[in-house]
Amino acid sequence: MLGLATGRIVVTSRIVVLGGGFGGMYAARALKRRLGSAAEIELVNAENYFVFQPLLPEVGAGSITPAHAVSPLRFLLRDVFVRKATVDSVDFERRLVTVFQGVQRRPTEIGYDHLVIALGQAADLSKMPGLEEHALTMRTLEDARRLRAHVIGQLEHAQITRLPEVKRGALTFCVVGGGFSGIETAGEMKDLIDRSLKFYPDIDPSEVRMIVVEFADRILGEMSRGLADYATRTLSERGIEVKLGTGVASATGTQLVTTTGEVIDTRTIVATIGNAPSPVVRRMGLPSERGRISVDRTLAVKGRRDVWALGDCALIALKDAPQGPRDYAPPTAQFAVREAEQLAENIASTIMGGTPQPFDYRSKGALASLGARKGVAQVFGLELKGFPAWLLWRFYYLAFLPGLTTRIFVLLNWFMDGISPRSVVQLHTRSVPPTRYVRYRAGDVIYEAGNRSDGFYTVVTGAVEMTRTDPETGLPQIRTIGPGGHFGERLILGATRRHTSVRAAEDTKVLVMDREEFLKLADSFQAFRDYFAPYMARHGMEWPPLGETEGQAAPTPVPVEKG
Amino acid sequence: MLGLATGRIVVTSRIVVLGGGFGGMYAARALKRRLGSAAEIELVNAENYFVFQPLLPEVGAGSITPAHAVSPLRFLLRDVFVRKATVDSVDFERRLVTVFQGVQRRPTEIGYDHLVIALGQAADLSKMPGLEEHALTMRTLEDARRLRAHVIGQLEHAQITRLPEVKRGALTFCVVGGGFSGIETAGEMKDLIDRSLKFYPDIDPSEVRMIVVEFADRILGEMSRGLADYATRTLSERGIEVKLGTGVASATGTQLVTTTGEVIDTRTIVATIGNAPSPVVRRMGLPSERGRISVDRTLAVKGRRDVWALGDCALIALKDAPQGPRDYAPPTAQFAVREAEQLAENIASTIMGGTPQPFDYRSKGALASLGARKGVAQVFGLELKGFPAWLLWRFYYLAFLPGLTTRIFVLLNWFMDGISPRSVVQLHTRSVPPTRYVRYRAGDVIYEAGNRSDGFYTVVTGAVEMTRTDPETGLPQIRTIGPGGHFGERLILGATRRHTSVRAAEDTKVLVMDREEFLKLADSFQAFRDYFAPYMARHGMEWPPLGETEGQAAPTPVPVEKG
């Protein structure tokens, strides 16, 4: 684009960076540093903050408060135009990015001369039935907050329930994946639980189970055997079971079934596996390999001179003729930051008419925290274990943190966490959407007579068996409901308790709609009302005028559990 | 109940406290202190933490992190059995409380000898059309977190939008109610905005409007005229407009209409008015006056010797023959704590066979922060203004905070807030439910051709006008949709952009269902699929097999706004 500056014509190029993670944020910084006013730089990110991924497990464990593990992008990128928006699509011919910002429904187009794609990767858990519906993930700050709230929720529930099977499930925590994220999450979660138990007198430490499930025959694949074995031993000393050579066969809200056939009662599954390209990157239709954008060694997208990619979303060869996976840049912060430097240099020299250089970097090592002030480290060929490794881990990341304020806050968090009890405040409790898919294994109870009428169910796949006691004969009546069928609609009659019991007749997937959601539709959507009108008539009821459904009634006496 | 202790029979009574606010938490504490092992004390609360209400505006403004403004009930009530559960109903004859705990659908019954009701009050905004659908509230910790995220979201949006009317609405903030909560919320919100603007270079301070709407002819009704006038002046010096004698006529997602006929473009309405009994208290059917439980002066519920009530949910006379409102205990923390002491003493003496005494207490004063280190205070007849009052406010509440750890954290928060910039990290962005009611005023645009197809709409009341351009003739075709009708269903055809424009033909209430929610139903609910099948057929499409709807398609080229 042309801009007029101090009397003479200067060419200002517009560089748009998509994504505000390690790759994108550091690229935007480096570009500004190199090009100054010679370029307009804009960064587009769905959140207005930069997440320091390595600290997520500590946020999940509550040793760092969420807001302190992140920095506002506007703090870190003073002279860059930061746009909080979601990327919809890119028109590479017209050099236009289409985004949606905030609640605004009108699309916004952003022009560019150079486009930098740093959109990272998304989770794809669809390969293992039930994992997508029932597993927590550890990719975003929200994920970490949700995990902490969920874990404390399990302790709260285990403390007061009188149902042994519920208590067992609540106190069994499973982590899928034995990489850095999985191991650190398990270690930190165990810390949180161990330090919190003193506030839950009715939970015996021996009742808590923490399990890491790893498909490979070892954990921490990026590290040496020796360190991996040490880590495994340390974890088991801390009461964390590591199941090697074990994958996930299927999952429900109450169970995890392993590929070795074991059935684990658990209400907590954290999945740290399953990388996939983010949907928007897939829609771009750029050349890709193994789910990542193909770039040449200068980080330019193959076949394009004005589109670049780096970080987890790009497949970056470290040699001209890469053989195995080790010849490609791993998806780590350490590499993303170095890639950002090279990319900025290459874009700058392209603009100035120079020649882009290939990205070349060798890992300086790896660090992992095991929780409880133990860790493993492999740096410049040296190997460290235990407390020293953990200390190195903390201070390496502290130094790595962008922004002085953030550093001070993180240090302060660590200090206070060292001298005060871990808070068991359970914030942010709503972790499931009001309309959601739920899986059941054959035989699972979906609900029982007397339970709270808390939702409306439709069968997607499989079949359920509904049992009620005939009021006249007193005999049980059984009805089977298959795909497309529904149950639980009695709540539109104002019922607050179930009069029937429903169990999965086979492995079944249902769509559950919370009571309030369902009643809103029944309240307002005519087709819905028409569909249920006959059912209501059979029960001697009819719809109130549109927009006035109450859906409330006095609870009916029911068999209950003693508190 | 009977319990055996050291050889002799001792009577242990079970006391169940419902609610963990100022009234409930302090009552449980005082009961334990007085009765020790002579009583089993249980506290039931929906959250596992105690909220220090007076600090909520500061949480909303980000000067205190949410987790630090609250204390886990388990920290504060070491020898009390704390149950995180929601109260469903009470059977006063059988002395049983029915609760639901966690995700458990089975009801749990809790027996009691004495029941203490301290469930506070709920918000009822239904009297003003649109307020319930579009106003934020400031009662819970979640409310405060949501407000902060919302305010920062408005700054983010105002910084990048190129639509003047959107920017104006995003930068206009309205608070309804000029009591303590309203005034402190407005003052703190203004602080947050003023301190954050340096990160939003495209927002001019003069573009920010903060408005307090109060129906009475003055604010802070609990304080002297002089202090109220000083507060009003101070607020207006800080750029906060106080509109007295002004109520809310109606509200939408983009506008607030006052009783004086003024129409204010705003996307932020914080309602601090509209007290109502909580639904569960209403269901209990206890004697009540003015929406509060009637108790005698000993805090026993009228007509019962084993049920007690205190705090905001109870109407407590301060004299035997109360005349005006001033003869009843105000709903403040100061009073709730004193009520808790008297209540504990009365239950103890009832158990020990003594005589309960009437509650008698006179306010020691009132304090309000105006933000920006200014406040007003009225203590022991003395009046303070400005900085001294603000300082007194902070230290009074710091001393008042239960739990040393919390005190230290709050102090630390204040200190760090004093020396570091206010973080503009926008956490917790989802503030609206995926299925929700939305109000429009006659003439409002609901969506325009080219907009994102982000939801399905049904008309509850009113009517909308849908306009499309006939592909053949090029002429506009207009269709009116009334109650029970729906629009926006094109998204089931895979559309990602609107092809029509819809505006409210009159004041209209619609039910909006987010795209994902709607597609889940279309994916799984046969009745839904059948209903839309003809519509799809008309467009030469049909449903994929149950459970496999994709609902995605390439975006179609559309007129867009320049970024």
UniProtKB/TrEMBL annotation, chains A, B:
<dbReference type="InterPro" id="IPR045024">
    <property type="entry name" value="NDH-2"/>
</dbReference>
<feature type="domain" description="Cyclic nucleotide-binding">
    <location>
        <begin position="440"/>
        <end position="521"/>
    </location>
</feature>
<keyword id="KW-0560">Oxidoreductase</keyword>
<dbReference type="Pfam" id="PF07992">
    <property type="entry name" value="Pyr_redox_2"/>
</dbReference>
<dbReference type="InterPro" id="IPR018490">
    <property type="entry name" value="cNMP-bd_dom_sf"/>
</dbReference>
<dbReference type="InterPro" id="IPR023753">
    <property type="entry name" value="FAD/NAD-binding_dom"/>
</dbReference>
<protein>
    <submittedName>
        <fullName>NADH dehydrogenase FAD-containing subunit</fullName>
    </submittedName>
</protein>
<keyword id="KW-0274">FAD</keyword>
<keyword id="KW-0285">Flavoprotein</keyword>
<dbReference type="InterPro" id="IPR054585">
    <property type="entry name" value="NDH2-like_C"/>
</dbReference>
<dbReference type="InterPro" id="IPR000595">
    <property type="entry name" value="cNMP-bd_dom"/>
</dbReference>
<dbReference type="InterPro" id="IPR014710">
    <property type="entry name" value="RmlC-like_jellyroll"/>
</dbReference>
<dbReference type="InterPro" id="IPR036188">
    <property type="entry name" value="FAD/NAD-bd_sf"/>
</dbReference>
<comment type="similarity">
    <text>Belongs to the NADH dehydrogenase family.</text>
</comment>
<keyword id="KW-0520">NAD</keyword>
<dbReference type="Pfam" id="PF22366">
    <property type="entry name" value="NDH2_C"/>
</dbReference>
<dbReference type="Pfam" id="PF00027">
    <property type="entry name" value="cNMP_binding"/>
</dbReference>
<feature type="region of interest" description="Disordered">
    <location>
        <begin position="544"/>
        <end position="563"/>
    </location>
</feature>
